[in-house]
Amino acid sequence: MSVKNITAITTALHLLFVIIQLPIVEVNSFSRQSTKQRQTRTTLCSTRSEEEVDVIVVGSGIGGLSCAALSAKYGLKTLCLEAHDVAGGCAHSFDRYSSASKNVPFRFDAGPSLISGLSKKSLNPLRQVLDAVGVADEIDWHTYDGWVVHDYADGQKFRLTTGTGGEWEKAIEEKAGKDARYAFEKFRSDMKVVSNASGFIPPFALRGDASAIGSLSKYMLKLLSIGTKGALLTGPFTACMEKYSLKESFNVKWFDYLAFALSGLDAAHTQGAAVAYMMNDLHDEGAVLDYPMGGMGSLIDTLVSGLNKNNGELRVNSRVDKFILSGEKKPECEGVVLEDGTIIRARKGVVSNVPLWNMSRILDESVKLGEHSKVVVDTVNEIQEEAKNFQMTGSFMHLHLGIPSDGLEEIECHYSVLNMDEDITAKQNLVIISIPTVFDPSLAPEGYHIVHAYTAASEDFEEWQKFLEDESGSDTTKIGNRPSTGKAQQYGKMEGYDELKNIRAEALWKAIEQIIPDIRDRAEAEGAIKMVGTPLTHRRYNMRHRGTYGPAPPVGKDVWELQGALTKIPKLLACGDACFPGIGLPGVAASGTIAANSLVGVRQQMALMKELRKNGALQ
């Protein structure tokens, strides 16, 4: 065997272990308890309400709902618990009324709204979840072909157009010249093999234990065919740029922008697979972008429908206070305790859809009373140390507006406003703007638009700590107070909060003015709505520790190192953007899929894969 072949196989095997993300726990972590363990099962006050299910999912973000719906599809009695009064996590929608109408609200998206790969069967893991649980056809999608970018550096606007019609290449040439166009065309061609490889292994073939060797069997040849390209998928995207000699200035800046829009990190710190996958999503023949009619909340409602359709249950206003932990020789998670004292036990496992930082604080609360064995306490301490060292990106500023729509007939739905000559990660450099009433007027009263503008991952939480209710000014909550409680709203009454809020929102107003010059006047018109959100708002409503966008690479590393589905505590699993494969709707749906697969046997997993392939929903 040649050295080249040996290198290719070694790289592919490395990629396999990165994909599987095996933790140091026993493979049979979901097997029946030993007699010793059953005898040491945690006992809690019998006067509390108590119930038992197969699977508990803590948190109803896209990852949590994907996991819960699939667990229910697998036939497991599944309960998804959400602290907020609405499901969806960072992707939830919310209503606000004004004098414009007493009956029709402004329906705002709290977070992402620029998505793709969902309106038809595709490689997108979220679409595959929707197909698997039988609800993909319940969403009415509006498809469109791009967005507009405004560059402060030269005052020019240009449009990213999807597909293979050549419009994007023409826009590059008009913006940056023929050399920039040729450089992009060559790079896209060179990257095709890497972009294709990014979709070779569907999350439905993955699981958190060594049985993944079986579920991956059908894809092993594809995995091996990746060869040395695997290092480009698992390393920073700049490695792809260096491999294929992309040095032209505009394209380097463009891929920094695209990486930041995906992950809150520049191309040097965004994993190659994410950007490579997006290149196919944007530039394949027939590529389109998708928006769910009814807003992002309709996508969340559809996932909840998939959960209910398969006899699962979602409970909102159900904040988890503690995990029930037990074990003398090894730890185990038996269930959860809610804020009101309700005890819910899980026969198969508990899946945490809260980030590692939040999960570690729930674990800390779980062992505070000193009733646990040394092995339990030591394992919790290990997870807390991991959380302490787990780096995070910055936070958000948000501006949600309801404005009169007269005279705005030619406006588009999505815009990005930035200075391409500055570092993409510079504070408040990139502002993303969404006006979804362009596609769906029913999201606002007649004659009005909704506008959502935000800066992603570039806000320093330190500026806002002093307004927290805790006297130390530190973020000490486990998962945040329920958003509707008085305690959760205290920061808004602190002296200096409104002043700083208005100062930090100025960049958002300025960005929208590039699209709608009279936006400030419109925001003061009769029936209009104006809401400014800060990192504390983001923390409060989305239960995000320090209002973070998501994980960042460890100190001294190029890309993030994320946990897999299994944690150090058997029967406590994890999913969401702090887990492999990371940030973004496809990433978190993939993590939820992997967690759900890990709760059942490999034969049951492969049976569902067979069903999906038969229906054309899985490659």
Write the SSE topology.
Layout: H1 3-20, H2 35-39, E1 50-58, H3 62-73, E2 78-81, E3 93-98, E4 101-109, E5 115-116, H4 125-132, E6 141-144, E7 146-151, E8 157-161, H5 167-176, H6 178-197, H7 212-215, H8 220-226, H9 230-234, H10 237-243, H11 249-263, H12 272-283, E9 289-292, H13 296-309, E10 313-315, E11 320-326, E12 332-338, E13 343-352, H14 356-366, H15 374-389, E14 395-404, E15 414-418, E16 431-434, E17 448-459, H16 497-513, H17 519-523, E18 529-533, H18 535-542, E19 572-574, H19 585-598, H20 602-614
Parallel strand pairs: 1-2, 1-13, 2-10, 7-15, 13-19
Antiparallel strand pairs: 3-4, 5-9, 6-9, 7-8, 11-12, 12-13, 14-17, 14-18, 15-16, 16-17
Helix pairs in contact: 1-8, 3-4, 3-13, 3-19, 4-19, 5-6, 6-12, 10-12, 14-15
Low-pLDDT segments: 1-18, 20-47
> What gap, in angstroms, lies between the N and C termini?
30 Å
**Shape annotation:** globular
What structural class do you assign from the helix and strand content? alpha/beta
Q: Radius of gyration over alpha carbons?
A: 24 Å
The percent range for strand residues is 15-25%
Give me the number of helical elements: 20
Largest sheet: 7 strands, mixed
Q: Which labels suit this protein?
A:
single chain, 619 residues, alpha/beta, 7-stranded mixed β-sheet, 20 helices, 19 strands, 36% helix, globular, disordered N terminus
Provide structural commentary.
With 619 residues, the protein is α/β, with parallel strands linked by helices. The chain is built from 20 helices and 19 strands. Strands 1, 2, 10, 11, 12, 13 and 19 form a 7-stranded mixed β-sheet that branches. The protein has a 7-stranded mixed β-sheet with strand order 8-7-15-16-17-14-18. The N terminus is likely disordered.
